[in-house]
């Protein structure tokens, strides 16, 4: 709603920005920030894991993980519809969706691409 009040933003630009900002925030909070915000009784095991890797004790395909995987897909579909499948917006939104969905795959559990965020 805030982005809609900016006079020079069109509806497709607002939807694309909403999608990109949402996916960027989810990526940062779920896949880059490590550790926990409070003291845990796990003797430091959680300090090397991201929040996504700590969720549900590492079990895959739980209801909370499914919800957090489906929500960017639903937002992507809405964004694609409201941007009328414009090629530029479609590419930006697809890249944004892939950047947030690929780290959620079980094959990437504990994997650090190019050693980024290793320690």
TrEMBL record:
The keyword Cell inner membrane does not apply. It comes from Rhinopithecus bieti. It comes from the Eukaryota. Plays an essential role in the homeostatic regulation of sphingolipid de novo biosynthesis by modulating the activity of the serine palmitoyltransferase (SPT) in response to ceramide levels. When complexed to SPT, the binding of ceramides to its N-terminus stabilizes a conformation that block SPT substrate entry, hence preventing SPT catalytic activity. Through this mechanism, maintains ceramide levels at sufficient concentrations for the production of complex sphingolipids, but which prevents the accumulation of ceramides to levels that trigger apoptosis. Ceramide-sensitive subunit of the serine palmitoyltransferase (SPT) complex, which is also composed of SPTLC1, SPTLC2/3 and SPTSSA/B. Belongs to the ORM family. This is ORMDL sphingolipid biosynthesis regulator 2. Pfam families: ORMDL. It is found in: Membrane. Transmembrane segments: none annotated. It is a multi-pass membrane protein. InterPro entries: ORMDL. The gene is ORMDL2. One of its GO terms (biological process) is sphingolipid metabolic process. Its main location: membrane.
């Amino acid at each position: 709603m805030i982005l809609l009040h900016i006079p020079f933003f069109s509806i497709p630009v607002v939807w694309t920005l909403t999608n990109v900002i949402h996916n960027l925030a989810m990526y940062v909070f779920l896949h880059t920030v490590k550790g926990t915000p409070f003291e845990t009784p796990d003797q430091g095991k959680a300090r090397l894991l991201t929040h996504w890797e700590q969720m549900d004790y590492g079990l895959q395909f739980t209801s909370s993980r499914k919800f957090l995987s489906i929500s960017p897909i639903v937002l992507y579909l809405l964004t694609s519809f409201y941007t009328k499948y414009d090629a530029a917006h479609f590419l930006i939104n697809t890249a944004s969706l892939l950047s947030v969905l690929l780290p959620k795959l079980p094959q990437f559990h504990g994997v650090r691409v190019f050693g980024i965020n290793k320690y």
